[in-house]
Sequence to fold (52 residues):
Amino acid sequence: MLRICIEPTIPVFLAARPSRDVVIAGKQETTRLRWELRPPPFALFVSPFVRD
Fold:
């Protein structure tokens, strides 16, 4: 299976509680819907350099 490194705001938008900021809330909802409706056909990971 192909692995790709994802930009770290994607898991943040998926895991965070809904924001009161309308722009951020919209980004969270868009990200959540995209991942629910069409999961990626590859394994995802966040670089260890980003996590630290």
In short: The two ends are 26 Å apart (CA to CA). Strands lie at 3-5, 43-45. DSSP finds three helices and two strands in the chain.
